[in-house]
Amino acid sequence: MRPSCSSLPRLALVFAGVHGIVSLGAGFSPISARATEAAPRSIGFNREIRPLLTSHCISCHGPDAEQRKGGLRLDLREEALKRQESGSRAIVPGDPEASELVVRLESGDRDEVMPPPKTHKTLTPAQKGLLRRWIREGAVYEPHWAFVPPKRPQVPGGAAGHPVDAFIQDALRVQALDPSPEADRATLLRRVTLDLTGLPPSEEELSAFLADGRSDAYERVVDRLMASRAYAERRAQDWLDLARYSDTCGFADDQKQDIWPYRDWVVEALHRNMPYDQFTIEQLAGDMLPGATEAQRIATGFHRNAPQAKGATYPVEEYRLKGVADRVNTTGRVWFGLTLGCAECHDHKFDPIAQKDYYALFAIFNNVVHLGAGFTQGGPVLEKPTPEQSAAVERLQRQLDLVVKAPGAPKEGGGEKEAIERELQKVRSAILAIPVMQELARPRETFVHIRGDFMQRGEAVQGAPPRMFLEKGEAVPANRLEFARWLVSGRHPLVARVAVNRFWQEHFGEGLVRTPDDFGLHGALPSHPELLDWLACEFVESGWDMKRLHRLIVTSATYRQQSRVSEEHLRRDPQNVWLARAPRPRLAAESLRDQALAVSGLLNREEGGPPVFPVQPAGYWEQRGLKGVWKNSEGPQAYRRTLYTYWRRMALHPSLELLDAPARAICVARRPVSNVPTQALVLLNDPLFFEPATALADELLRAFPSDSTLRLQAAFERTLSRPPTAAERTRFEEFLAASAASSPEAGEKHRWVLLANVLLNLDETLVRP
Q: Fewest C-beta atoms under 10 Å: which of 223, 337, 442, 586?
């Protein structure tokens, strides 16, 4: 039976102890919409004081003992209340005037004032007033919200209605904001189809939905989309960013690696709706499962994606350890939602993670077989020969045995033996070798690296998660399999929260926590903490069902709102924190291209297999000083989904790079979204996008050879899932006439190619509605 979120009181007390809290208090809530109500209330530590201390004080007066100034620690109450060597106390509860913290904040002496002027950190009079008032009210500390296990909150208004909407609308009422009405059906279909599959709806799908009068027509569409392979491909795209998936090893030489079967494993697992706990275990430790299958071993490619290449300057051991550190840091981002890498060289400056904790976790990932040599990644591989290759190896091995055992055969084998061996080696070198994890029979010794230098060994450590997450007396997971199972036991305070926050981000552009890879003290507070915890508990108690969580989000009225921005919304909530309207995020780089291929009829929906090479400028790799030649794919292979494009870390396809696709040298929890002129040039002129415009024009001219009115309507419906308005029809007809007048010799196809290119570059096309 899976543990429920409401059955975790002991761990909450452990976290209270870690942070020096005397009491958790009833109904602990880190930040809430209700906090903005005008009624007088006490100062909230997590809501108002912790952010001030974290941004202005904790780097010098926090967990990092080596960097701590004056022996003062302000992140723990018992330490902040201690009498210092000078006889003063930084905080005297109830008496701000006797508190050295207040004295130093208001000092006029440059040598005494805090924060020091050289830090360029200053507190406003209002912020100083908050600190004074907090001390006067007793200087009550609270545990950091993310380190307390989630407890399922009551759904506002009871069980009736959609729970997501209940939490969102409760917050909107407090903010005196009204939700937007539901978007029209065509917009809804386009939005949810792009979101769930990365592709636009077809004209047939649009017609069927508009004609479906059943009350659950929308929910039926969602179920249809989530059952499709395209859904798994779109979700895999986000996971591959986290997994730093690439078809190359990284670092300067960036050699090819055949790890694409891992990418296909991710797609298949998501298509089958593998529960997130199993999804986690197989990727972190599938090779250690009893009777591990080929697929489970391939799943461990997650941590063989770590950039690794010896190069000419690294000692072999340093190069190996860089890969181990990457595994630890990536695990921290993906499952903990924490910046564990900050503790590689010293105690974490903000979160209660000691350097020793970092290397204890390091020890868990330090026991993988590694055989790197030269510029290759090396390490254990899973060989996957084709039937033809297996037959050839068997045939050549028989021939070799006959030659060696033949009467009178020379001891060294002679020319025939060498020829067979060469042929056998040629066949074996062509067999697909997939990088996988494999545990050493005897664990390596692991030490703290003093200041992060692997050549300066400190204290020896045993494998373990950070101590802050362990209950007293709890069995310590000491290897990858035990650790993976512990992560998804349902007891961890962060794992479910971090996962559902990413799911939310995938559909709203921003998570409920807007720092998806930092739930620590320096990260953002959740906008809707009760909703976040409800979703986390629902996720665990549903059996870690990923599709169910996505369905829950996209069937909410919150998701189905119009995206139109009113003057009031813009004035009162410009960042759309409270979600009184649907957001309009720009489509990801892959979706921009896949959409163009789909509406033009060029898209090849072939699934899986080796990466493909859509058109790229000649000599691009050479310009970046890299070996190898990009050979453009031909025929249908050139038009496969962008998910299957060859991903080279040191030279990502330039158009994808300009459209903010990450090179995946590191784990990426949220892609940046830029807005620069070169993006417009790519979308208008690059063959990746201009060729679909040409194909779309060909399709329109073939379908409607003599009726430009129907042709224009079809162009709009294919591209925007709606017919043109009267004003738009007039504008586009004027555009065609102007094109004909300026280039009469170009012909009708040229004019419709230009029109199709304009349609594919409209803001409405490039942004989710």
A: 442
